[in-house]
Amino acid sequence: MAVKRVTARLATAVMAAVVGGGLGAFALTPASAGAAVRTAPVATTVVTKAAAASCATGKYQKQVETYLKQIGGYGTVSVDGKQSAADCTAIKKFQKRFGIQPAQGLAGPTTYDVAKRLAATKTAACKASKKGVTFCVDLTNQTTWVMKDGKVYVKPTVTRTGMKGYRTPAGTFKINKRTRKEWSDPYKVWLPYWQRFIGGRGFHQTTTYIHDKWRGSHGCVNLLQQDAAKYYSIGKIGSTVKVIGRRPGT
Q1: What are the start and end residues of each CATH 2.40.440.10 domain in the chain?
Q2: 211 carries an active-site annotation
Q3: What is the pLDDT of residues 219-228, one digit of tens each?
Q4: Catalytic residue among 55, 88, 136, 220
Q5: How far apart are CA 1 and CA 13, in angstroms?
Q6: Which residues are annotated as active site (predicted)?
Q7: Which among 99, 112, 58 has a CA at the least distance from the CA of 211?
């Protein structure tokens, strides 16, 4: 009787530790009155359910799944409109990459909008030169990418260009000024990773939330920090910039 009581207490304590996370993916269960072995089913079930429950199913779940599968690179997704642990992980990764806040795996309107724009971007539309580097900006989809020797060198990412009254012009330009950090006299802000290509317009790291589309820029091509830094590392005086399309509403 004493052995049975000790074994029961041991099993109860171990189960509590598993649920609380103290034993990770392993639980101990008695194989006999005086021995114990490792087993995982209970802990694995708890972890899997917790991971799946960490993300709600968003309004645009199936659409986002479709676009992420088309874009690729964010993990395995199932196009069924139902949130799974794998879907949640992929959506979070996508949200973190493109600065979508909060990055909680919910397929909301901003995530849907960004995924749709990236999926709609046709890199060949830039008609980049077969030699050298070309920075491409798609005003219609509000995306940008880099071509080198006629091939995609930096995959499409998000941008925010000029709002109504400050439209970023389409055309072919050359980078004519570069500074690690430029001061804007009109707007009294620093512009990190500045690369000017026409008038007072150029590439730079955004100083506000890039997905606040209604704000827009004053004609510049706003970039996320990691993209602005990448562009700055690639660009040089004389690099070609091709701007195509037109931003909706401008």
Answers
A1: 125-244
A2: no
A3: 999 999 999 9
A4: 220
A5: 19
A6: 204, 220
A7: 99
